[in-house]
Amino acid sequence: MRQSVRKHYRKLAQFAALGNLGWGELFRHNDFPELQKLKPEAEHRPLLRRINRAFDSRFRALRPQAEVPPLFFPDWISCSPEVRQQLYAYALLRRVFDSLRFLTQRMGGLKSGGQSMQLFLEVRESKDGSMLRVRDPYEDFLAVLSDCDLRRLRSCPVCGHFFVAWRMDQTACSKRCANRLRVARFRQRQPQYSANRKFRKRTGLSAVRQGRHQLMELNQALAEAENHELQKPEALSEAAELRSWKAQK
Ligand SMILES: [Zn+2]
């Protein structure tokens, strides 16, 4: 069963890993511009090279063909042929990243919703002079999404990276992040745990697996009621006055 989930979600996991290149840029270089704000022949030259290298080493299968001039980029004409190719790779990464962010955020508690994404219409002339459409690799990403239960697509609460949950109860991207999450949650609940221990010590009750919090709440409510009565001297004195008035009658 586990194996078949891995097989079925392998391509989605690959796109999630691709999207994480965006987080890598943001965490390490604090810069991951939208396509329109990219300065490919100036300040963003190293960024484009890094992304390009990552496509070569880890995401060769996802690399766009980049057969035609990137007319989607306003200043494409002033770019070198090498950069024009890299623009395609960057455009795919940026769109996958934005899509994964949309898919892993909670849409304000809604169970359904949509957002607008750019799809490139690319055409080229073939050898016999006919005009053909070239497939945009973002379409492959959309096709992979159509075949998956997108609840498995998540962003790690510890490191923020996108991941595919192989098990539905998987809460973090890796064992390391899952451990850190457990420790953080334990610390958060520490006051509750020590209250539980004190309660058991005071009452001599052993730890219960279920219904412990109801027991704790009941105990707390009783203790509060006791305190409330003790801390209301006016109420007590009123009652005493009433009693003595009744006795006089
Ligand atoms: Zn993580």
Salient structural properties:
249 residues; mainly alpha; 2 domains; two-stranded antiparallel sheet; 8 helices; 6% strand; binds zinc ion
Mean pLDDT: 87
Question: How are helices and strands ordered from N to C?
Answer: HHHHEEHEEHHH
Q: Quaternary status of these chains? A: single chain
Q: Which distinct ligands sit in these coordinates?
A: zinc ion
Overall number of strands: 4
How many domain regions? 2
Helix content: 55-70%
Strand content is 5-15%
Low-confidence regions: 232-236
Largest sheet: 2 strands, antiparallel
* Overall 3D shape: elongated
Describe this protein's structure.
There is one protein chain. By secondary structure, this protein is mainly alpha-helical. The protein has 2 domains: 5-107 and 118-185, no CATH class; 204-248. Helix content is 55%, strand content 6%. The protein contains 8 helices and 4 strands. The protein has helices at residues 2-8, 10-29, 45-57, 81-104, 138-146, 175-203, 212-230, 233-248, and strands spanning 122-125, 131-134, 153-155, 162-164. A hairpin with a 6-residue loop joins strand 3 (153-155) and strand 4 (162-164). Helix 2 crosses helix 4 and helix 3 (45-57) packs across helix 4. Residues 232-236 have low confidence and may be disordered. The structure holds zinc ion. Zinc ion (ZN) is lined by residues 156, 158-159, 161, 172-174, 177. Zinc ion binds at residues 156, 158-159, 161, 172-174, 177.
